[in-house]
Amino acid sequence: MKVEIEESKLQTAYANACDGVKDFMESLFGKKVFEAAKPTLDDYKTIRTYEDACKALGEPIFEDPNNLPNHIIALMKLETISRALWGRNFQPKPDGEGSKVYWYPWFALWTKKEVEDMNPEQRGALLSAAAHYGAGAGFGYLGAYGRSSGAFAGIGFRLCQETEEKAKYFGQQFIELWAEYLKFNFTVGNRLK
After folding, report:
1. Which residues pair with 152 in a beta bridge?
2. Are 46 and 39 in contact (CB under 8 A)?
3. Residue 2 and residue 6: Cα distance in Å, rounded?
4. d(C-alpha 161, C-alpha 149), whole Å
5. Quick check: 70 and 45 in contact, CB under 8 A?
6. Bridge partner list, 40
7. At what angle do helices 70-86 and 175-182 cross, to 10 degrees?
8. Which of 69, 76, 89 is nearest to 50 (CA)?
9. What is the DSSP track for the chain?
């Protein structure tokens, strides 16, 4: 019998294994296969878990002595992961001139087809949340209006990445943490019929 395993899946299993299992895997497949699996700031794809981010940054794993709400813990972990994904040499800085583009993971709660299949009342209820500013009123929204000038930030800068590819990886690889962070104050229930 022949069994084929994708190298990336093997490396993910290795990254999540305890020391004894890692030793076994190294004896079975050789150490070289797993060298790329070690978390490093030089390759964001080696950051597969919150623990990987802590290892790559040389930081301790957060332990909550104060019973913080789950969404706050998830945000703290996402901020740590984001810094690890930035890498060794990238120093993100807000750009007052607006010449630099940063990317943020984007999440859809419904597919395009599901929205199209909604009756007008359901679609209206869904779209009313976007109101005047489109999706700008999403999670993490801050705004200032009613003065001689206005400014707003639609997302948290600390969770942005410098490329679209990294932002997509950040959203997909850590989807459970994102869900924990973003679900604050709402519950997951049945979809509209």
Report:
1. 143
2. yes
3. 13
4. 28
5. no
6. 43
7. 140
8. 76
9. ------HHHHHHHHHHS-HHHHHHHHHHH-THHHHTTS-BTTBGGG--SHHHHHHHHT-PPP--SS---HHHHHHHHHHHHHHHHH-SS------TTS----B-----SS-HHHHHHS-HHHHHHHHHTTGGGGGGGSTT-EEE-SSSS-EEESS-GGG-BSSHHHHHHHHHHTHHHHHHHHTTT----PPP-
Contact assessment for residue 161 and residue 85, using Cβ atoms and an 8 Å cutoff: yes
| Domain extents in the chain | 1-38, 45-182
Looking at this protein, which amino acid is placed at residue 29? Answer: F
- 116 or 110: which carries more pLDDT confidence? 116
For residue 99, give every residue at least 6 positions away whose Cβ sits within 8 Å of its Cβ, in sequence order, or none: none
pLDDT digit string, tens, across residues 119-168:
888 777 665 544 434 434 333 444 545 545 454 555 567 788 989 999 99
| Per-residue confidence band for 17, with pLDDT thresholds at 50, 70 and 90 | confident
Using CA atoms in the order 38, 21, 76, 43, what is the torsion angle rounded to 10 degrees?
10
| Both structure tokens of 16 | 């999540």
Q: What is the pLDDT of residues 49-97, one digit of tens each?
A: 999 999 999 999 999 888 999 999 999 999 999 999 999 888 777 777 8
